[in-house]
Specification:
- By secondary structure, the protein is an alpha/beta fold.
- Helix content is 53%, strand content 17%.
- The strands form three sheets. The protein has a five-stranded parallel β-sheet with strand order 2-1-3-4-5, with helices on both faces. A five-stranded mixed β-sheet has the order 7-9-10-12-11, with helices on one face. A two-stranded antiparallel sheet has the order 6-8.
- A hairpin with a 6-residue loop joins strand 11 and strand 12.
- The longest helix is centred in the middle third of the chain and has 71 residues.
- The radius of gyration is 40 Å and the shape is rod-shaped.
- The C terminus is likely disordered.
């Protein structure tokens, strides 16, 4: 028993036995009220608080099983110990199936009161444990819901940040384009146009992020498809009309996507500028999943390669410095395929995506 006296409702149509039970249990520290039938017992249950009900089976008008069903239908019902004067096991089984916590076979002399007290204590403890479990489950569910809400909010905020960054990059690209158009020096025009394309390569990643439900990874093949389309459309005089992409599905984190986009932009611009002095020709970008963790990227053309006129396309310049920096960022193995006619630059890097687990505030 607990320190606070348990409140018991004893429902039995035998007033003499009910009085006997009341006295016996009150001597053990219970607070006991009695009811002579099911309906009056239900009335007391709805108007007051009881920790447990002891319920007789055989009662005129409404028997114990019918009363038990109505008790179980109450909001937050108390524990019910079924009391029966019959030795038939079928009655006890039916009561337990209907929701009784325990059952006791009563005797006229009242020796069963000690057993009833034990059953009452065990039933109340069982209800207490069940309620504690339900409360714990509810708390876990509420914590999970809070966690999911925070994770959703965080994803929305990250997408909003990417959206704003993307817009800012678009503005910068537009300003570079305007400045390039207004420049009188051809060298300045070329430099500003290159800067514009580099900014657009980064902006493509952010556009992918804020239009996707997944802000932790980028489908690199889809990203390169959009990037190559932009490069093809922005090249002057149609010199990139034969720019093509062959890409297998690959997923990488946004930082790697930015680095890859900058590398592809630089190498394609390099090929547009140097590969075909007399016109245009094929420029191929290829992306393949080499194995479970490595990705192979190549940009190639069938042009003049590294001849005396354009020796610097592979040995110096801002573009090469940028490619080298991005390759370092990717931890990539990279270099030029000397056996290829024209120019072919390859990179191999790890595509592993680290999934960040949001933490609850």
């Amino acid at each position: 028993m607990t320190d606070t006296p348990l409140r018991l409702l004893y429902i039995d149509d035998d007033p003499g036995l009910a009085r006997l039970v009341q006295k016996g249990l009150e001597r053990r520290g219970y607070i006991v009220e009695t009811a002579g039938d099911g309906p009056s017992g239900l009335g007391k249950l709805t108007s007051g608080h009881f920790d447990v009900v002891a319920l007789d089976h055989y009662m005129p008008g409404q028997d114990g099983l019918a009363t038990l069903a109505e008790i179980r239908a109450l909001p937050d019902p108390p524990a019910v110990v079924y009391v029966t004067g019959t030795q038939e096991s079928a009655v006890a089984v039916a009561a337990l199936k209907a929701g009784a916590s325990d059952y006791v076979v009563k005797t006229i002399e009242g020796e069963f009161i000690a057993l009833l007290a034990v059953a009452i204590d065990q039933s109340v403890e069982g209800v207490r444990l069940r309620r504690a479990k339900d409360a714990a489950v509810a708390e876990v569910r509420a914590a999970r819901d809070r966690f999911e809400a925070l994770a959703t909010e965080r994803a929305v905020l990250i997408r909003e940040v990417n959206h704003r960054v993307g817009n800012s990059l678009q503005i910068i690209a537009a300003l570079l384009h305007l400045q390039s158009s207004a420049a009188t020096s051809e060298e300045v025009k070329v430099a500003l146009a290159g800067a514009n394309r580099r900014v657009m390569a980064v902006a493509q990643v952010h556009r992918r992020l804020y239009t996707s439900d997944d802000v932790q990874s980028v489908a690199l093949d889809q990203y390169l498809t959009a990037l190559v389309s932009d490069l093809r459309g922005s090249a002057e005089d149609g010199v990139a009309t034969q720019l093509s992409l062959e890409a297998e599905p690959v997923e990488v984190d946004p930082d790697k996507a930015v680095a890859v986009g900058v590398v592809v932009t630089e190498l394609v611009l390099n090929a547009v500028k140097y590969a075909y002095p007399d016109g245009n020709g094929p420029i191929r970008v290829k992306l393949t999943a080499a194995n479970g963790s490595r990705v192979m990227l190549s940009v190639e053309d069938d042009g003049v390669g590294r001849g005396p006129v354009n020796q610097d396309r592979a040995t110096g310049g801002l573009g090469r410095m940028i490619v080298k920096a991005m390759a370092t960022k990717l931890s990539a193995d990279w270099g030029q395929d000397e056996s290829h006619q024209g120019m072919r630059v390859t990179l191999a890097f790890d595509r592993h995506v680290v999934r960040l687990q949001p933490t609850a505030a």
